[in-house]
Amino acid sequence: MPKVVANGIDIHYEEHGDSGDPAMLLIMGFGAQLTLWPDELVEALVSRGFRVIRYDNRDIGLSHKFDGVRAPGIVRMTLMSKLGLTPRVPYTLRDMAADAIGLLDALDIDRAHIVGASMGGMIAQHVAANYAERCLSFTQIFSTTGNPRLPQARKEALEALVTRPKSDAEEVLVEHGIMLARTIGSPGYPSPEERLRERTLSNLRRSFYPEGPTRHLSAIVADGDRSAMLRKITVPTLVLHGEDDPLVPCEGGRDTAACIPGAKLKTIPGWGHDLPLELVEILSGEITSHARNATN
Question: Can you state the angle between helices 193-206 and 170-184, rounded to 10 degrees?
């Protein structure tokens, strides 16, 4: 798997499609490796004429790890944020946006269609806001603005996300991963047990690094409310969100679309916080249609 030095750190990535086609950069979310973008979705985007690049964010997968760098406690950070104070964290979402731009630089890509999911959507917001000249279009998938007045994650979804497995034994980690996927996944499009178990095991064997998500979470909490930043975005924007997302409620997508001038919003009933195979055609169609309209 290729890697480059981007923004001063090693970033591992995968590239699919013809190098002469318009570039599309996929940014994945909290604690998630690039493999959380389904191969089927990548192939669908490639078949529609795009050069698709997906990569591991810093501190996850095969990219650079910030070993030994401690993040402040979430309770303390949340309290500081409510008091209007900015906690010191190992790195910020804006740093992670600079990673994305550094990857484009390393690949000699001047401009790309930017697609971000969950925390990746937050990173992509920073890319669209601060590097507009590098963006052909912006698509956000099940993400939010950070507005504290919006509905929060369901208790069971948040607990599943932050609870550590009982041990590092492979079978325990696989069952934990399946539990998390089921808890935050799409009630209208449940993943078959065999596929879910196979993907969970494959991702675990590719990389297991539980320290990274702690620092990811600190970057999210420290970022606060991005509403004012989003109102300045001029990049053509599409917001996709599931109406049954238990982790990032649909109001987060609606609020994003309301903040970004001219943004388009599409919500899908039965869709949760995952990328089901049953929605690949719909999602790839929406993403590519938006990308083409943005450049025509």
Answer: 120
Of residues 128, 130, 95, the one with CA closest to residue 25: 128
Each residue's pLDDT tens digit, 117-158: 999 999 999 999 999 999 999 999 999 999 999 999 999 999
Residue-wise pLDDT for 180-191, tens only, equals 999 999 999 999
CATH topology of domain 3-154+210-295: Rossmann fold (3.40.50)
Q: Can you tell me the distance from the alpha carbon of 175 to that of 207, in angstroms, rounded to the nearest whole number? A: 16
Contacts of 149 (CB under 8 A, 6+ apart): none
DSSP string, 105-121: HHTT-S-EEEEEETHHH
Calpha distance 172→214 (Å, rounded): 20
Find out whether 28 and 36 touch, Cβ atoms under 8 Å: yes
- Decide: helix, strand or coil at residue 96: helix
CA–CA separation, 186 and 175 (whole Å): 18
Span 197-249, pLDDT tens digits: 999 999 999 999 999 999 999 999 999 999 999 999 999 999 999 999 999 99
**135-141 vs 237-242, strand pairing mode:** parallel
For the whole prediction, is pTM greater than 0.90? yes
